[in-house]
Amino acid sequence: MIKRLLYLGMAVGLGAMAILGGCSSAPDKIRIGEVTRSLFYAPQYVALEKGFFQEEGLEVELSTIPGGDKVMSALLSDGIDVALVGSETSIYVAQQGAADRVVNFAQLTQTDGTFLVAREKTDTFSFDQLKGTVFLGQRKGGMPQMVGEYVLKKHNIHPQNDLELIQNIEFKNIAASFASGTGQYVQLFEPEASRFEQEGIGHVVASFGKESGTVPYTVYMTKQSTLDKNQDTIQKFTNAVYKGQQWVASHSPKETAEVIAKYFEGIKPEIMESAVKRYLEQGSYAADPILDEEEWNQLQDIMNEAGELKEPADYTKLVNTTFAKAAKEGK
Description:
It is a single chain. This protein is of the alpha/beta class. The chain is built from 16 helices and ten strands. Helix 1 runs parallel beside helix 4, helix 11 packs across helix 16 and helix 12 crosses helix 13. It is found in: Periplasm. Its main location: periplasm. This is SsuA/THI5-like domain-containing protein.
């Protein structure tokens, strides 16, 4: 489904002029489309709230577009200028033969952000305990599910044979489904994992981020034509992202939670702090925006294991580290 929708999005957008590219001078406004609203993206919200984009002379319009396919469709049809989504989506677009390829230029998160939550508390956990159970996973073809299956296979568990894998529930409904009694294990992002622990609904027994290693999990990307025509603007944008990353790395989880609280109304402060702390401790927030080739290759290994990689994806064509390196060097 995700690849079919990506194809439709390309059909709409490949012939269109980039919104940014239509301006005679560098624009002061950038429209970001994030794939979900998540504490996983804390450095982005810090950059917005601490005025780092404004310091760079940019006005940012942020919208949440659920689903990687929908984010890509919006990007390709010029509904947004920059997408914040998993790098696998840029590979899916490339596999469809896009003339104006989608390029990753600034990495935000560098590990998987999900956790294995068990309904029953256990003093000792091993992945063997999943065999014969009902596992509530994520959507097929997306990074959470691919990483989940990659980790299970790493522990000699075949997802389709050794357990009952459920992956037909919408992302937004997965936590609620587990809370209502579906599954013995579930793969969850924060803050749901911390909230479930506090409420006694479930217990975190493993981290998929720790198990799968460093990958370009969530990255800012745009069309090649946009990069070509608006290098100054993209550089300013990347500078602001790096400032957000530095701020989060140098402040306490509590301070970060307080700064970004307005983006997560209804979530208790202690839950937000717990979630940010967990992500910081396992290195989920990228320290800088540079997406290196080793991470890219790990992503391809995960996609290949899931049967979602048609052919190797060229790092030199789908990743541009020029802006990230310049931001880190303060240029």
